[in-house]
Amino acid sequence: MSQSRSPENGSTCLEDKPSVALVLGGGGARGLAHIGILEVLDELGVVPKVIAGTSIGAIFGSAYASGIRGADIRRHTIEVLTRRFDLVRDVFSARAMSGRSAFNLFAGRGSLLAPEALLDIVLPSDVAETFEDLKVPLHIVASDYYALEPKVLTEGPLRPAVAASMALPVIFRPVTIDGRMLMDGGFVNPLPFDLLDGMADILIAVDVSGTTKQPESDKPPAILESLFSLSFFFERSLIREKLKARQPDIYVEAGTGTFNVLDFLKVKEILEKAEPAKERFKAQLARALEAKTLHVDE
């Protein structure tokens, strides 16, 4: 399905280039904006030295760290969310899934979905099976439900780690890894640039947490929408506090905050809305690479 980043296709990290650490934050459907950032890296011939991701950032981070190009991730994502949306719909309606691997959609208590079942459809088939198989080291952030602390996953099977990081309460059941019950990493570290501090010459953090959507009428938001918006209040507060203490070298606000967390069917609109941020990031990164290179030459 996809083409790996390699010297043959012109997207390789030359030894004399400054190293880059990439951080992809959580934000539900708003995180589709990450795709444009990945495309910029390919266009500038930059392969990150290390990647960190939370929630949807972990999804795209795992694909990119597997060596899949941004343009191929875009094509796959649009296909899944448009032409193949009937498969995604089946996940949420618990239909037509009896023949798909061994995942039980409504495993666990109540009617929570198993996040692995969605990943089985959403992730490209050539995503690595384990952290050790990745082409770029990856740090995935999840929340430990009982310990009330972050859990950073860097080894072992990859899909359970991604599933844990994206396991938003109310929709998905938690994922148990090594005896720890894990859920959405956005509750503890929605933009984990602190994890990669000092690991590369240029630290890039992509914030897709956004803001709550402006109302179109005087009606109060629906209960489910309010519940999800509360998580973004926490995430935005955490990110603001972190930015007071430390600023990444390049901080990108994706500009997709007007979309709701579950607006995945608006994939093309979200990607279009993120284009200005993509272009600004390309200019910022090009300047940073040139400045760092000149500094090294001196």
Q: Can you give a write-up of this model?
A:
With 298 residues, the protein is an alpha/beta fold. It is built from 9 helices and 8 strands. Strands 1, 2, 3, 4, 5, 6, 7 and 8 form an 8-stranded mixed beta sheet that branches. The longest helix has 23 residues. About 9% of the residues have low confidence.
Task: Describe the structure concisely for a colleague.
The chain has 298 residues and is of the alpha/beta class. The protein is built from nine helices and eight strands.
Shape descriptor: globular
Structural class: alpha/beta
Major sheet summary line: 8 strands, mixed
Instruction: List segments where confidence is low: pLDDT < 50 over at least 5 consecutive residues.
Output: 6-14, 94-111
Cα Rg:
18 Å
Number of strands: 8
Q: What is the tally of helical segments?
A: 9
C-alpha end-to-end distance:
43 Å
| Helix-strand topology string | EHEHHHHEEHEEEHEHH
Mean pLDDT across every amino acid position: 83
Give the strand content.
5-15%
Helix share of residues? 25-40%
How do the strands and helices of this protein lay out in sequence?
Blueprint: E1 20-24, H1 34-43, E2 50-54, H2 56-65, H3 70-83, H4 85-93, H5 115-122, E3 138-144, E4 149-153, H6 158-165, E5 175-177, E6 180-184, E7 202-207, H7 223-245, E8 250-253, H8 267-273, H9 275-297
Helix pairs in contact: 1-3, 1-9, 2-6, 3-4
Question: Which features characterize this protein?
Answer:
298 residues; alpha/beta; 8-stranded mixed sheet; 9 helices; 8 strands; 13% strand
